[in-house]
Amino acid sequence: MGLDMNKSKLLFVTAVLALAAPGSASAASLDGTWSGGGFVKPSSGDSEKVRCRVSYDRQTDKVFGVTATCATPSNKIHQTGTVLKVSEDRYVGDFYNGQFDISGRVRVVVHGSRQTVTFSSPKGTGKMELRRR
């Protein structure tokens, strides 16, 4: 696999790490550890499965710190970031990873004890489902 392909895959894993939001409508319940998986689809390559473990720590009523580890069959990434609550069940954010020069947008919709995370950038797209651990 070429460097551009690996960089594109890292983009999507980075998006999830940087800005995934946890799976509960209550701000107080965002704290904790979540895990799950999905796929990443680089604009210049094939889809690849991804697995993540994400921990959240409340900073304010609407902002949560994020620490995460994600892996694809070809890469592993550790990252920190923040997420912003924009409505009762939705979170959004931008991300940037200087190590791989990757940036994009993350959107999260909460469904009870699960969350759907979608992410996109000029380098591709991805989607994941996470659950509370």
Automatic annotation (TrEMBL):
User: Keywords for this entry?
Assistant: Signal
Q: Which residues form the signal peptide?
A: 1-27
Q: What's the protein name? A: Alkaline proteinase inhibitor/ Outer membrane lipoprotein Omp19 domain-containing protein
Q: Which organism is it from?
A: Filomicrobium insigne
